[in-house]
């Protein structure tokens, strides 16, 4: 991948681009009782923080905070610092804030700015809330013109190019046939996680905002990027660095395979599963799939996946005639999946990508500073 040259990008304060407006409490009962078309935004990371749709007239009567139109929102607490894109007017609850544009906004510009803002998410944690004052002072780097103004044309062209590339990739995936097959679990057996792994937690209190950037992964709770919130140069002098080739399960039950040595934040309640058997990448990926299938929406802020709870959990695995986990089956299965996936990717990269008509943008994730 080619690194985007940011040499001539300029630092701006968030407050130069947005008015930051807090919201009032909106309950799920209100959304249920007053259903409508207005997106209700809170602090979650799914669906850009939208938890449902509520009646606009009801929100106006309650004097809830409604955006002027297309905008960004930022989570105040919980998933602090997470930025969502809102394609139309929305209402925010007390765990989110509206980022009301001060500039001539459009979808392309807002999505580019969202990516720049998401870089700062690591500064906030579950215990560090976003306030109007601290968020307005945050620094973001953006392309600039020779006069030092934001280069909106560059941003729009970049996002158009990304849109076309993404649409081409989606078209290629759609045209690539893949028939899912149901696995026969007749002879699978339940195993207690506690009999397969030693479950430990990190000590110390590493906080991403206090760490210097480096090459060592810092694992926290999250649904993306293997749970890694940033890469740091060293620990805090208290936390243990864990060897790679282990599995982590965060407080929401989301699991990942960690191939390399890493640190873990203690306030993120990251459970480190050290295998009591010979683990490799293929077996680990099979187990991660089983974990994620076994714990769908079971854990949350009010009922976290902790060490005590994990020791009681059981998972269904392929078993040998002797009743032991069939590690060889798991490894061979994942090797097969890997081979099929590589073949699919090879076909996609060889497929001629025809130009596509521009359409409305969807969520393409963060731009950051990498480009093919």
Summarize the structure.
By secondary structure, the protein is α+β, with helices and mostly antiparallel strands. The chain contains nine helices and 21 strands.
What does this structure look like?
The chain is of the alpha+beta class and 372 residues long. The chain has two domains: 2-154, Adenine-n6-DNA-methyltransferase TaqI, Chain A, domain 2; 188-330, DNA methylase specificity domains (Adenine-n6-DNA-methyltransferase TaqI, Chain A, domain 2, Alpha-Beta Complex). Helices cover 27% and strands 25% of the residues. The chain has a four-stranded antiparallel beta sheet with strand order 3-10-7-8. A four-stranded mixed beta sheet has the order 5-4-9-6. A four-stranded antiparallel beta sheet has the order 13-19-16-17. α3 crosses α5. It starts with a strand and ends with a strand. The relative contact order is 0.13.
How is this fold's topology laid out?
Blueprint: E1 2-3, E2 9-13, E3 18-22, H1 28-33, E4 35-41, E5 50-54, H2 56-61, E6 65-66, E7 71-75, E8 83-86, E9 91-92, E10 96-101, H3 107-118, H4 132-136, E11 139-143, H5 152-175, E12 188-192, H6 193-196, E13 197-201, E14 213-219, E15 228-232, E16 246-249, E17 255-258, E18 263-264, E19 271-275, H7 281-294, H8 307-312, E20 314-318, H9 327-350, E21 370-371
Parallel strand pairs: 4-9, 14-18
Antiparallel strand pairs: 1-21, 2-11, 3-10, 4-5, 6-9, 7-8, 7-10, 12-20, 13-19, 14-15, 16-17, 16-19
Helix pairs in contact: 3-5, 7-9
């Amino acid at each position: 991948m080619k690194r985007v040259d940011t040499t001539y990008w300029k630092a701006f304060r968030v407050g130069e681009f947005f008015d930051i407006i807090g919201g009032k409490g909106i309950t799920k009962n209100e959304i249920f009782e007053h259903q409508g078309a207005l997106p209700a935004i809170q602090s979650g990371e799914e669906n850009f923080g939208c938890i449902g749709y509520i009646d606009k007239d009801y929100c106006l009567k309650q004097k809830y905070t409604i955006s002027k139109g297309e905008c960004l929102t930022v989570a105040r607490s919980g998933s602090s610092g997470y930025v969502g894109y809102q394609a139309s007017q929305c209402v925010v609850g007390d765990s989110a804030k509206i980022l009301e544009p001060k500039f001539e906004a459009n979808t392309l510009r807002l999505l580019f700015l969202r990516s720049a803002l998401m870089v700062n998410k690591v500064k906030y944690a579950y215990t560090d809330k976003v306030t109007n004052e601290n968020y307005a002072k945050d620094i973001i780097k953006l392309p600039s013109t020779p006069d030092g103004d934001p280069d909106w044309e560059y941003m729009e062209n970049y996002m158009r190019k990304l849109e076309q590339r993404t649409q081409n990739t989606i078209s290629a995936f759609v045209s690539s046939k893949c028939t899912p097959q149901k696995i026969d679990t007749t002879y699978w057996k339940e195993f207690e996680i506690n009999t397969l792994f030693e479950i430990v937690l990190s000590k110390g209190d590493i906080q991403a905002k206090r760490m210097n950037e480096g090459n060592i992964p810092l694992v926290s709770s999250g649904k993306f990027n293997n749970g890694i919130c940033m890469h740091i140069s060293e620990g805090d002098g208290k936390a243990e660095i864990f060897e790679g080739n282990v599995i982590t399960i965060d407080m929401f039950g989301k699991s990942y395979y960690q191939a390399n040595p890493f640190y873990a934040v203690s306030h993120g309640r990251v459970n480190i599963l050290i295998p009591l058997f010979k683990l490799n990448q293929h077996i680990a990926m099979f187990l991660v799939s089983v974990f994620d299938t076994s714990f769908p929406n079971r854990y949350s802020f009010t009922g976290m996946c902790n060490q005590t709870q994990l020791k009681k959990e059981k998972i269904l695995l392929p078993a040998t005639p002797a009743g032991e986990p069939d590690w060889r089956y798991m490894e061979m299965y994942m090797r097969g999946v890997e081979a099929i996936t590589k073949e699919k990717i090879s076909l996609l990269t060889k497929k001629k990508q025809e130009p596509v008509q521009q359409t409305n943008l969807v969520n393409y994730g963060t731009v950051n500073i990498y480009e093919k």
